Amino acid sequence: MTSEAGQPDLATTTAQLGQNRESMPWPQRRALVKVATERLVQVGATETILSLLLLLADDPKWEVRKDVADCLLLVPDDDFPRLAAKLSQDSNSFVQKAVERALDRRRRGQESVQRKLRGLDQVQDQYANIEKMHGSIAARKAHQMAERLYDVLVGATVHDMRNILAPLKSTISSLLSHLADGNLDPKTFEKNLTKMGYQAATLERLLEDMRAYSQPTPSQRHRERLADVVKEAHDMVLDGFKATGRDPDSVEASFDVPENLTFEVSRHQIVRAVSNVLKNAYESFAIDPQVFGEGEVRLEARRIDDERIEIVVRDNGMGLSEEELAEVRRFVPGGTSKKTHGTGFGLPIAKRKIEDHGGSLAIESQEDVGTMVTITLPIESGGGGE
User: Per the confidence metrics, is the pTM higher than 0.90?
Assistant: First the structure.
């Protein structure tokens, strides 16, 4: 039976199937699950929808049961355990795997929510501590400053996104115009689609850098060889250039890292930080987004004392003017300084991850002479992280 809109009357259909499961062919029962899923998205869970899903979770055909398992993520928390428990006992491996995926995604989603709540709780606790130590006026000023910094960061990021989306939309409009005119020249479409791919990749890098900047640094630390970390960071830079069709072979790179120098770090975070610094050094020789001029990048590392190591990255590239250097030293994400290919998040990410390890990052630069970035990190763990 169908409603006036041509959609199945789920209450009547559920009653019909409850009396005789074979009154409807199994492909139609699969279609019913799809309808129920669409209703879950549109109007939320109702008793009729949930009753139908519970009924079909016992369907003789595993394909129907798997479809029910695939929509588990949409089921409200109160009803999820009942339906998940029924399906988790299923004898079919495809159904079991679908349930396991739903459980895993639901758990990760809940963990993500909890991390966000913990982060908000930590911020509120910090405001409370400021108020307790310095008074309500200081706490209110701190809150206003944080909001202003948020406004600046979001505004800069939105601006960068619009700069990427505007030409992307223009290219799409151009292709649609060619289609309307009957112009199906393959070269025209290849050129424009290549451009769109580049723009989409730029937006993807921006979003990835935003995510990397905002995520907390893990608290786990492991003993690592600095030489291995530096090699992985450099390989990451070269792989990134290769993936975007850029050839940095005109830039000579040299490394002086003691083989026995080790430290305790969250490896991926420090690899990312060092790679961002190296990438900036390479890009100081960029003539345009795809072409590098000749130059040299040098990385030297040493043990300062019993507690710290130092990593120095030098280049003899274009360098920064005093005004540009002052802007870069703000380490505000999205900031630009002769940026030809990056997102403006590289150094801010590096500084944040290094400081999360209890270290520091400093930058010196002179226009037409070059740039030097100095990273200091503790040898033993004991600072930063979530």
Answer: no
